[in-house]
Amino acid sequence: MTIRVIIVDDQAMVRAGFAALLSAQADIDVVGEAPDGREGVRVSRSTHPDVVLMDVRMPEMDGLTAAREILDPPPRVVHRPKVLMLTTFDIDDYVYEALRAGASGFLLKDAPPADLIAAVRVVASGEALLAPSVTRRLIADFVQQRPAPRKDPALRLKGLTPRETEVLELIARGLSNQEIAGHLVLAEQTVKTHIGRVLAKLDLRDRAQAVIFAYEAGLVRPGDSG
Prior knowledge:
five-stranded parallel sheet, 11 helices, 5 strands, 12% strand
């Protein structure tokens, strides 16, 4: 299956470079480009991409606002692509907010070409781009600035079984599925089943959002050891 991609960035050279690289892949088709967030939302709704590469800082409408509009569209809009944020800085407050809004991860603009191609494929497959340990470091940096747990996430935790809560905590501590399986003495497929139930019950899109939820609910705190 071909992965349909649009590129939203205010730098024409970046758009052209990314488009050339991705279009050269047999399984990726660049179906649109946009120079700002507002146009990016329009192009997304007209071309129905699988993945949107979204720059963080742009004129007219920034990438965070555009990502929110794409990921939480009006009722009449049924298509919701995956959004991969592009940033110059590896730790960026906009990235944190974008992940909360439902973005599937972030990628540095100066990442090697192979990383960009792999990122598009990972996000298109429905996975969060970030490795658990990277996600943990990113979120912990910002949650330290927001130390008080939010009541709503804490209440939603009550809908999980004790095992599901345990799995969520281990995700937030940065453990991979294989490590969680070893820690809990479970089959890896069983861990995947638990993770799927956690995401469904909490209405979360992927692992990145699960990590944020766990921190905001007070299930784990920055500095906790695994």
